[in-house]
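task queued by scheduler; priority normal; single chain, no ligands, no partner chains; default sampling; output format set to structure tokens
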Amino acid sequence: MTQPTAASAARGKRSWLAAAPAVLMMAWGGNQFTPLLLLYRKVEGYSALQVDLFFGAYIIGLIPGFLIAGSLSDRFGRKPLMAVSVVLSVVAAVVLALGSASPTAMMIGRLLSGLSVAVAMVVGTTWIRELSTGTVPPAVTARRASLTITAGFLLGAVAAGVLAQWAPWPTITPYVVQLVLTSAAAVALARGIETAGDRSGPQGRGRERRPLVDVVIAPEHRRRFFTVVVPMAPWVFAAPALAFAVSPAIVVERLGGLEIAFAALLTLVSLTVGFLIQPSVPRIAARVGGASGSVGLGLLAVGTLLVAANVAVQSPLVACAAGVLLGGSYGVCMLTGLVEVQAIAGGRNLAGLTGLYYALTYIGFALPAILSALAPTFGMLPLLVAVAVLASGCAAIVAFGVRRTR
């Protein structure tokens, strides 16, 4: 392994770019499945329940990966764990490409994809932040990690949606493109500098043995975590899930057979806004006394009300407008949470606490399934209004938590 002094000397302004392509491609591989859900139902004849199970397998891979990847990278290094993530992503892509007609293969592929994404989100983003240490402000290092993940989610879903709608062999071509680009990312990854065990910076840490699940929160930070981070985290991915999982189903009869492309368009709209708004989050936080999370949740509430109104209108344009607000909510909440976690964790437990944060954020992906299950009984419109009210309540809790734990 590179000696700490050598690693410190070698870090430059662009050291983090060695890790970023792999992180981007792992997110690409995880999210490109989203616009393909309609394709698999159409081409392979899967039921809505089977498709939900495929997504459930992805979550099953994510959660343990979130909880243990950080501790494993503390023991064995960031670079080896990211190499494992790349291998898992490649195997998952091959299984999904060749096994689209097999429910078992789809479950296995999605499980492996979830593990790969979890490692990238925890270890990869931690590695990016550590490679960015020195004169780079903490908010900038968190933003680099968040933007890389967001770009991967965005590009993967849009590319897959376009290829599935218009390219030949739609169940295979998206994965071929993913594999080619992942190979290029692996080349960049090989040049990355190991940071685990480097004590030269404020985020450095040794390789002492720790629990497999290492998510200890210092007592002085627990109130902040439970009143600011926890009420906000599940909404991070609930927002884009509403944008490109719920909205397309509402307007599907107006799309003229272009439902896959429209799902990709909503992904493009929401995640592009989420990407572009993140550099402005520090300014937003400064204007609202640090309660930028409340702003993000407010955007979510308004965007959800637009989705609710669209139940009656069924307009693709209204769906896009809601996607703008929901994407803004995603961007603000994602970065705000990462900055909070970075401040709470300090140097000892950054990877582990980042993993816990991401595990909480992915709870939000259950929202479309919950709405689908309850809609026959209560109706989609009242349920969406209830979601907006609940998000507004969480915004108030976050604002209160920020004031009380300043």
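post-processing summary
- Confidence is low (pLDDT under 50) at residues 1-11, 198-207.
- The radius of gyration is 20 Å.
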